[in-house]
Design brief:
Length: 175
């Protein structure tokens, strides 16, 4: 009787450990898989599914994407290069005015990147019906949930509704 108890306990323990390892491996794979897939492509496909685009709309919008992606890629490459140059200046101990000029160059490139994304969004909206435009705005609003506070995109393990939240507009009537 005692021997059967120990065998059952051993089998249960092995099953529990294997289940835990399988869960860990699955969760780990999910994190890596999300990093391997091109995020921008994933976002566009997800958005197009939510907008219920007609074939003609998809074709027009797909023709806008290559130029937008080329511009964004070029701006990001330039931004990365300027940041490397700024880091090299920091290591060399360059004078502040030269570093300040490099920071302004980085800021200008970041501004150009923001302008390109906004330009594409406005061009994208021209081909949408009013109800699709409303859905597009809602989609963008949901995607920006974690970005509004300036902390950037978080991993899926972070819970929503934690942290500082959405920035609040100051009330001029309160001290």
């Amino acid at each position: 009787m005692k021997r059967n108890f120990w065998i059952c306990l051993l089998v249960f323990s092995l099953a529990l450990n294997l289940g835990g390892l399988a869960t860990y491996a699955y969760m780990r794979y999910q994190d890596q898989a999300s990093w391997r897939e091109p995020a921008q492509l994933q976002r566009f496909q997800e958005m197009w599914g939510a907008l219920n685009l007609e074939p003609g709309q998809k074709q027009v919008l797909e023709s806008l994407l290559p130029e937008h992606r080329r511009r964004v890629r070029d701006l990001r490459a330039g931004l990365a290069q300027k940041r490397i140059e700024l880091f090299e200046m920091t290591k060399e101990g360059t004078e502040w005015p030269a570093m300040q000029a490099k920071v302004k160059e980085v800021s200008a490139l970041q501004g150009q990147l923001e302008e390109e994304v906004l330009r594409f969004c406005l061009a994208f909206q021209e081909y949408l019906k009013p109800e699709q435009r409303t859905e597009f705005i809602t989609f963008i609003d949901r995607r920006m949930f974690g970005v509004r506070g300036g902390k950037g995109r978080r991993s899926p393990r972070w819970k929503r509704d934690t942290g500082v939240g959405t920035p609040q507009v100051a009330d001029p009537c309160r001290p």
